[in-house]
Structures are given as structure tokens and as C-alpha cells.
Amino acid sequence: MTTPAPVTPQEREFAQIARAWPFEEARRLIERTGGKTPDKGYVLLETGYGPSGLPHIGTFGEVVRTTQVRQAFRRLSDIPTRMFCFSDDMDGLRKVPDNVPNQDMLKQFLGKPLTIVPDPFGTHESFGHHNNARLRAFLDGFGFDYEFQSATDWYKSGRFDVTLRRMLEHYEAVKNVILPTLGPERRATYSPFLPVCPRTGAVLQVPIVRHDVTAGTVEYKDEAIGKLVEVPVTGGHCKMQWKADWAMRWVALGIDYEMAGKDLIDSVKLSGQIARVLGARPPEGFNYELFLDEKGEKISKSKGNGLTVEQWLTCAPPESLALYMHQQPRRAKRLFFDVIPRAVDEYLGLLEKYQAESAGTPVKANAPPANPLDNPVWHLHDGKPPAAETHLSFGILLNLASVCHAEDKAVLWGFIARYAPNATPATAPILDRLAGHAVAYYRDIVKPAKRYRAPSEMERAALDDLVRTLESLPADAEGDAIQTEVFEVGKRHAFADLRAWFKSLYEILLGQDQGPRMGSFIKLYGRDETVRLIRRVLAGEDLASAS
After folding, report:
1. How far is the CA of 305 from the CAs of 56, 336, 490, in angstroms?
2. Predicted model pTM
3. Please, what are the domains in the chain?
């Protein structure tokens, strides 16, 4: 655990009236503790991870949101906190993920605990260890303060044994929580305990024919050899069935807070009932909506659909991803490449807004002072957002990269230096990072989808008019003045509306159906460069050939 910076009196004051959702969640935690340190010496927050597939963006979302609740709690209370990232790596491999190599090999290990399934990538001692390492690597890359916990370690070390014996003592009561939710066939064979077969090492879904509370064992019939087999419930010889396992973990670790996706609402309720059967209080919780792929389907570790963390971070800074996770967590959102530019520009706007709020400057005239702790960037940076750089939007940089077919951010800086002479990679580090991301986004996303079209006769006349209009403007004309003249050109020609005029400009000059505010873009790209670009089109040159 890292030692956080002291909370300032001003932060404490602002925290008391902050309305952002992490503060609302933190207040629920304080109410749970009664403002007193729990007997274990800290408040414990948990995030869970099923390492049956590679870590995905939903996993990151749960960790970043839980971290934000923890940060808010620290501003409201002096009670120490810890955060566990718990991997259910003793779970049996139920199916082979679609996005890993050596699938035929993995099929031979179906049902085996993930920490004894060989690593299909050949880099770690097991598939579970490989996926755990991937999880930790990308969490560490974001600088999260967490403690990794392995179900295999907890089960086999005996640290779960006391709670497992309690679960055995309440065997029938625990079963009775789950049985009403099952169909007749599953109800006839259900047991909260899953023996690990001494003969094969597989996690077994088998009926328990007898349980012995005094001996601490369960007994099942091994159909392959036709004999009854008795195994202890302790020491890693059994694993708990999913909902019972979640409850057992809450009780054994003393979890105070854990989020879950909307698809797990029923599981949370059932696990909470089981925790109460064991005489414990379930953790406080928060149900967030699911992330969907471009087709509206739930993202899945095994399918590998949707947008990956790596893809987002190639095309945009991590703060934009954290912002996307922070905003409206109870609303379902699609995760595909088109959401990235908007998330980046929203981050930049909120950074400017935070700077004004922190200085006590109203963002709008006559508005009351805002609470900077309600600004999302406060949560993204744990109260220490960087200074805002008011230069260029990410959208403008993307379109600049597109029109000049940039393969290196140095190309973009050639234009940026003219637009903002005081900005350099050293003095504007955020802008410098965005320039690199814009080049990557253009290369990976925009360039493969660019589709230029030739102008119609009416559009050729409008473009010729635009050339003459731009040439009549001063070389140092500002973006607003240029934008006004572009509007006027559109009005002089037979477009259905100005939206159609700008759409024509985007499709003909940029090879896409959406684009920037043209005045700002022409100011950045250059009046003379824009004129030359249009003249190439009017001369019949194929702009796609330069891509």
C-alpha cells in the first residue's frame, strides 16, 4: 500500500458538500462503520476478477470506480482503507476463450482449476498465472493502489478454512438460499461445495451424498471408478460454488464494499443472504451498467469483443478512459472507437473548468461558486489535476492528421507551432501526447475507413468560390472570421442547408462524413495550404492516392 498525501482542510470542507457519486458512496461506507474503525483495523474495498479470459476494459472500469470511492472516503474519514483485487483463479476452466492460442491443448484441461491449466502463451506456469499477470500489469500501468489476492493462495493456505467450516455447519441453510432459483434437474444435484477430484484434479459439479460437520468433510460418488470419495472442505480440497463462494469470501475477508455489474444484481442478493446465514453483514454495494460493443452486445473476456484497454491507450490518453468510466456509471454505454475523440475533448474541457473552479472563477456569469470536488477530473487525478493547456482540441488534431496523412507527430507540430507559437512539446506536454495519439488514431482507425468522393458541378462552383474567398482574407485571419466566410459561401450556393455544405467539405477534402469546425481547422492547417488542397480537388487529383 502507498501512503497517500495528507488531506487538506479545504479538501475536507469541500468533501462535506460534494455531490459526485463517489462521495455519495463513501458516505454510505461511513454510515456502515458508524464513523469508527472496524475491528480489523481498516475499511476493506474489493474488486473481483475471473481470470478465465484476458483482462478487459470492464475490469478496469470496476477498479477505477472503486478507487474513486476510496479516494472520496479518505477526504471524509480518517479510517484507514485497503483495496483487494481478488482473482477467482481456482475456478474450473468452463470453456476455451476465443481469443487465445493453442485452443486444442486447452480443451484437454476443461474443468481443471485455472492455476493448473497450462499457459497457452507459454510464458507463465499456468493460464491463471498468465491472466493474473496481465491484470496486474495493466492495473500497475495506471498506478492503482491495490493488493492482489489469489483464490488459489487463500484456499490452499488454509486462510479460508474457518469460514469454510462455518459454511459446512450451515450446509442446508445455504442450499436453501440457492435451491429456489434453480430448475428441477439442477436442484436435484446442487451443492455449495465443489470437490476437487483427488484423481484428476478437476473441480467437480457432483451431488454431495453426505457431509460431516465434525470431520469437516463432504462425500461424493466418483462415477468413473464407482466408489464414494470423501474429501475435506478445507485446505483447497474443495471450492465453493459461485454465489456461495462470493459470500464466503465476503465473510472471511470482512469486505465492506464491492461493486458489481447490473447483470449480477440477483447474485449479489443471494450472496448477501448467504452471508447473513453465516452471521455476517454483506458489504455495501453499487450496481453499474454494462459496457456494450458496437453491435450492442455485452463485452466478454472470452469473446474479446468490444474495445480493449490497449486499443484505447494507443489512440488516447488514460485520463480519457478513466473519465469515460467515471461518467454516468448507471447508464449502459457502447465502447467502440467513435467514443474516444469525444471523451478526450470532454476531459480537456473539464480540466479547463476545474482550473477556473479552483480559482473561484464562475464558469458562467453570475453562477454560484462550484465545488471543484464535483468535477470529474478531481476524481481522475486524486485531487491533483495537471494545469490545463488551452491550445487545440483532440478533434482538430485528428482532422489535421487526416488531411496531411501524418505518420509522425512531428508533422503535426509543424502546424501547431505556427498556430500556437508559445507551445512546444516541453511546455505543452498534454498537447504533445495528444499529437502522438492523434497520429495513432488516424493510422489505425481513420485511414482504413477514408473514402474521398469527387465534387458535383454545384459543389465545384462552391469550392471555387471558397478558394477566392479565402484568398481575399488576411493571412493572419482568426478562426471565427474564417468560419463566418465559410458559412457565407455555403449560403450562396444551392445546398439544402449549411449542414449539407459542411458535409460536402468533409467528404471531398477529408474523406469522411464528419469533421471539424472549418474556421478553426483552416486557421490551424493554414489558409494557403487549404487553398492548395481545394485546387488539387478542382484539378481532378485523387486525394486518396496521397493517403
Report:
1. 9, 10, 42
2. 0.90
3. 451-547 (1.10.10.350)
